[in-house]
Amino acid sequence: MTDLEYIVDVRHVKKSFKDVHAVKGVNLTIKPGEFLALLGPNGAGKTTLVEMIEGIQHPDEGEIFIAGKQWKNHQHELHQMIGLSLQETRFMDKLTAWETMRLFASFYKLDTVRVDEVFQLIGLEEKKKAYVNNLSGGQRQRLALGVALLNKPKILLLDEPTTGLDPNARREIWNILLDLKKGQKTSLILTSHYMEEAEFLCDRIVIMDQGNILVEGTLQEILTLGGGHHSLDELFISLTGRHLYE
Amino acid sequence: MNKITNHQLYRLIIAHFAEIIREPAVIFWGVVFPILMAWGLGIAFTKKGDVNIKLSLVKVITEQDSVHETKLAGYLATNGNKKDSTYTIDLKNEKLGNVNLTFYETSWLNAYTMLKKGKVSLIIEDKATDTKYHFDPANAEAKTAYQLVANLASYGSAFYGVNQSGIVPLTMTGTRYVDFLIPGLLAMGIMMACSWGISYTIIDRRSKKLLRRMVATPMKKSNFLLALITARFTMNVAEALLLFVFAWLYFGTKVQGSWPALMVLFLAGNIAFSGISILISSHTANPEIGNGIINALVTPMMVVSGVFFSYHNFPDWTIPVIRYLPLTMIADGFRSIFNEGAGFADVWLEALVLTSIGTVSFIIGLKIFKWY
User: Fold this and answer.
1) Would you call A106 and B215 a contact, using CB atoms and an 8 Å cutoff?
2) What's the gap in Å between the CA of B371 and the closest CA on chain A?
3) Hey, are the CB atoms on A56 and B372 less than 8 Å from each other?
4) Which residues constitute the domain of residue A161?
5) Strands B81-83 and B86-91
6) What is the per-residue pLDDT across A107-154, written as a single tens digit (0 to 9) for each?
7) Which residues in chain B show pLDDT less than 50?
8) Which domains does chain B have, with CATH numbers?
9) How far is CA A18 from CA A21, A22, A208, in A?
10) In angstroms, rounded to a whole number, what is the distance separating the alpha carbons of residues B354 and B89?
11) Are B11 and A106 within 8 A, CB to CB?
12) Residues of B in contact with A104 (CB under 8 A)
């Protein structure tokens, strides 16, 4: 497993819903430990691509390998190595943060030692006994991130983890992710509307639009390739004709 | 590491259970409300207080008649108590219970307004020559009022007090209305608790994307549903016990038949409605649609399955259908155990059918279940 060159290997993947071609033959690879930002306006196909990597959508054509394995025959193993945080997930309101974490820990057969570690990691120890519906937006998002990190995932999929958060709460999430980047061999696929989030956290940036990858590389590479733009914002507008948040 | 408290099924049950008991509204609607309903209806239909019947009296006076010449008004003027334009007559009978008749002397227009508003159920058209009664014959209360007033007009108020020795009021446990009601409420409790507690919870969690988040882990899908059913069943047992203890202490309700048979039927009823609840909530992620689906399931059964009143009042051709509805099977089975001394031999078929309905619904529901 450690010898694998790519932890995620997406090959010529296509996916359509009725008449809508959501993903039109995408190739994408991610190395172990690499942080990758997937940017694109609404309808670009990034959610469909992430859902296929996550295993809840199946490609019409092409193949996806996660740590060399495909979802079809390795569901249980792949669930063990993926961590996930969805933008809109709402945990059970009347469970405490601790109970929520313990519930998800039980799915991975983890005990309370790991739960305590994760609470420390996300800096939410003081809120262990608080009901989920009494947590602030930022605290809920940190809890969701903590749940995603419980199983020490090899691949972390974060769908707009800081949308709707104030700058301080956003910075707290970034710091947790930066620590993760330093400390563990976790690869990150991040979808975001925030350019600075991608610039700050990720090794590589992929810009998608209308089911295709328009450009990919490090920030410097894509700015140069894109014709010498000064910022990701400018590059994005020149590539798609739209702002990222549209 | 292998402690049971770390097992996912255990943690799921605890989580579902915590969600139920930490919500005060759930405790009110699940525990307090059925007891209030049993108390209210039990009291309403067993009370010994006087019955009050109100009627509109329209006097039709021709030029030749004087005011007191109309038939009933003449009787009331002599024998009733008059205050303003209202007469009252009290009919006394210790066994039947007293009846207070109130006659509002009024115009046709006002009489119809009172009827439409439900203040009276009968309009008496009182003439010097005869008396006519205007009412809906399908309305049992109006029919009773008509019979009382017609007898009053013919024989005077003494008619109501005759033959008291021939009336034997039923007070024996098992024959009162409350004995009919309590098993029905217990059955309805199972249906309501499962359909809202399981179906609505699933739809709500699907809409919040929690189901999608959970199936992205190694959680066993069947464990999620099993835990939800187990937590709900535990609550249902507690709710049913509290209602029964209340009925036992307050109304003296007794189980005359077999307790094991009652428990088997209770379990079968829970299996049936748990399975049905999984099936009806297997697809939608929209709580409003879920609301509609659940209401479409529970409302017809609440009306026709004889929870509050016997379904034998429905047309004959509907009875075979009504009898095999899940709620009817549970309510009928409970009643036969509570009031007729029935045992396992009398309810095994119902228990088997209910278990089969639940199991088949659960299997189909699980097959077509949408997790996201």
Assistant:
1) no
2) 10
3) yes
4) 8-240
5) antiparallel
6) 999 989 999 999 998 889 999 999 999 999 889 989 999 999 999 999
7) 68
8) 4-44+176-368 (no CATH), 51-166 (3.40.190)
9) 8, 10, 21
10) 53
11) yes
12) 217
Q: Is residue A180 pLDDT above 80, yes or no?
A: yes
The Cα of A129 is separated from the nearest Cα of chain B by a number of Å equal to 13
Query: Domains in chain A: how many in total?
Result: 1
Which chain B residue's Cα is nearest to A56? B216
Please say whether the beta carbons of A70 and A64 come within 8 A. Answer: yes
Strand pairing report for B99-106 and B51-59: parallel
High-pLDDT (> 70) share of chain B, %: 94
**pTM as predicted:** 0.81
Reported confidence tier of residue A161, pLDDT bands at 50, 70, 90: confident
Can you give the CATH number for the domain in which A227 is found?
3.40.50.300
Mean pLDDT value across residues A12-38 = 91
In a domain, A1, yes or no: no
User: Which residues in chain A are contacts of B8 at CB distance < 8 A?
Assistant: 106-107, 109
Chain B contact for A111 (CB, 8 A cutoff): yes
Q: Give the DSSP H/E element, type plus range, for residue A115.
A: helix A112-122
Tell me, yes or no, if A243 comes closer than 8 A to chain B by beta carbon. Answer: no
A2 assigned to some structural domain: no
CB spacing of B210 vs A102 below 8 angstroms: no
| ipTM of the complex as predicted | 0.88
Distances (CA, A) of A179 to A173, A175, A184, A192, B40: 10, 6, 8, 19, 63
For residues A38 and A190, the answer to whether their CB atoms sit within 8 Å is: yes
